[in-house]
């Protein structure tokens, strides 16, 4: 069992609820989102505290699900010190050993956007992020803050993936990963390799966790998160071991 309590009080912060809207993950359900007031402009300490309570970042906004009568969205994280890659993950690491990784600030880059647009059009044409646009990309994945970073993956100079993440006091928070959907790269499983790379980066920086956002048991697209074991889930204000199904 693992638990954390926020070091910085959050009681004086203002939050807002969205009106109910169609759930992006479970068909036929409505969702409501709790947002930190965008005017709050929280510092790093507030972000660290809210992340321990299950909040995520999208652009300038910190949010978490707040759906009446539904608790399907579960915050999950990898305890870095306890994580050991399985056989498949070790094979993927060897397969991608020829990639070079570069850390970048989370600022707009036309090369990144071109890859993002191709990824959305190919992999998520049926989702609410389609069609991609420059404005959508900027508001979602760029942020002029020292904790917001991008990790590039290149194959002989060719950009094949980008992982957006934040560095918190208690870990790395994976925001979003997009990659080249070309058939010649399928065997590399670049989404999985990006998570493995963040775990390795967190270990090298002596950070205890990698946050993977929300996991929904009934959502097939989120099933990959269970491959990272052990995994912890947020229950109330405490993080506890998630027992694999």
TrEMBL record:
<dbReference type="GO" id="GO:0004057">
    <property type="term" value="F:arginyl-tRNA--protein transferase activity"/>
</dbReference>
<protein>
    <recommendedName>
        <fullName>Aspartate/glutamate leucyltransferase</fullName>
        <ecNumber>2.3.2.29</ecNumber>
    </recommendedName>
</protein>
<keyword id="KW-0012">Acyltransferase</keyword>
<feature type="domain" description="N-end rule aminoacyl transferase C-terminal">
    <location>
        <begin position="111"/>
        <end position="234"/>
    </location>
</feature>
<dbReference type="InterPro" id="IPR007472">
    <property type="entry name" value="N-end_Aminoacyl_Trfase_C"/>
</dbReference>
<dbReference type="GO" id="GO:0005737">
    <property type="term" value="C:cytoplasm"/>
</dbReference>
<dbReference type="InterPro" id="IPR016181">
    <property type="entry name" value="Acyl_CoA_acyltransferase"/>
</dbReference>
<dbReference type="InterPro" id="IPR030700">
    <property type="entry name" value="N-end_Aminoacyl_Trfase"/>
</dbReference>
<dbReference type="GO" id="GO:0071596">
    <property type="term" value="P:ubiquitin-dependent protein catabolic process via the N-end rule pathway"/>
</dbReference>
<keyword id="KW-0808">Transferase</keyword>
<comment type="similarity">
    <text>Belongs to the R-transferase family. Bpt subfamily.</text>
</comment>
<dbReference type="Pfam" id="PF04376">
    <property type="entry name" value="ATE_N"/>
</dbReference>
<dbReference type="InterPro" id="IPR007471">
    <property type="entry name" value="N-end_Aminoacyl_Trfase_N"/>
</dbReference>
<dbReference type="GO" id="GO:0008914">
    <property type="term" value="F:leucyl-tRNA--protein transferase activity"/>
</dbReference>
<comment type="function">
    <text>Functions in the N-end rule pathway of protein degradation where it conjugates Leu from its aminoacyl-tRNA to the N-termini of proteins containing an N-terminal aspartate or glutamate.</text>
</comment>
<feature type="domain" description="N-end aminoacyl transferase N-terminal">
    <location>
        <begin position="21"/>
        <end position="91"/>
    </location>
</feature>
<dbReference type="Pfam" id="PF04377">
    <property type="entry name" value="ATE_C"/>
</dbReference>
<dbReference type="InterPro" id="IPR017138">
    <property type="entry name" value="Asp_Glu_LeuTrfase"/>
</dbReference>
<keyword id="KW-0963">Cytoplasm</keyword>
